[in-house]
Amino acid sequence: MRALLIIDVQNDFCPGGALAVPDGDAVIPAINNLQPGYDLVVASQDWHPPDHRSFASQHPGQAVGTLTTLDGLPQVLWPDHCVQGTPGAALCDALDQARVAAIFRKGTDRDIDSYSAAFDNGRRKATGLIPYLRGLGVTEVDVVGLATDYCVSFTARDLADAGFTTAVLRHACRGVNLRPGDVDRALAQLTEVGVAVR
Ligand code: VGL
Ligand code: ZN
């Protein structure tokens, strides 16, 4: 069984959104075209409470983009984004959801960020994605969506670690590139842990 995993194609990550990824909406037609080629299509959704501690607004005096630590883990401070139930948190209307069998929400615990769709950043709690895929007999997962250097990359690494044959499809991903070269570095690190980048 081959699955397509669509990461965080949400309004806040697209142009005009709170944490807009450059050219983020370009992934949507690419992902719509890919979907018919898979046995299973699954999505994730970044889904934060309004006082999530990854938000710079929760750290007076600290600017968006600052690198700090949260509960002992490295943490970039982000603008408020993907707040539960807001239009910014919704999956983009142009994304074809007809074949999306399940949506895994993440980042719901205010005290820890969750880039991966499988575990929080401290690998303390699981979302259930991995047992869900295993239970359906999935062995191969192609990962697409937003953002390449955060949620796509963390998810692909966790899936490869869990034993899935994992690939990231570059043409259907876009990255933040907070520091120039972040996307290229993230993809290079993925190839080192056995994720195919194509
Ligand atoms: C993401 C930063 C903060 C992502 C989510 O979906 O890549 N990035 N929250
Ligand atoms: Zn987030």
SSE order and pairing:
Blueprint: E1 2-7, H1 27-34, E2 40-46, E3 67-70, E4 73-76, E5 100-106, H2 129-135, E6 140-146, H3 148-161, E7 165-174, H4 182-192, E8 196-197
Parallel strand pairs: 1-2, 1-6, 2-5, 6-7, 7-8
Antiparallel strand pairs: 3-4
Bound molecules: pyrazine-2-carboxylic acid and zinc ion (ZN).
Pyrazine-2-carboxylic acid (VGL) is lined by residues 8, 13, 46, 78, 115, 146-147, 150-151.
Structure description:
There is one protein chain. Helix 3 runs parallel beside helix 4 (182-192). The longest helix has 14 residues, at 148-161. A 6-stranded parallel beta sheet has the order 5-2-1-6-7-8. The chain has a two-stranded antiparallel ribbon with strand order 3-4. It is an alpha/beta fold. It is built from 4 helices and 8 strands; from the N terminus they run E-H-E-E-E-E-H-E-H-E-H-E. The chain has helices at 27-34, 129-135, 148-161, 182-192; strands at residues 2-7, 40-46, 67-70, 73-76, 100-106, 140-146, 165-174, 196-197. The chain binds pyrazine-2-carboxylic acid (VGL) and zinc ion (ZN). Zinc ion (ZN) binds next to loops.
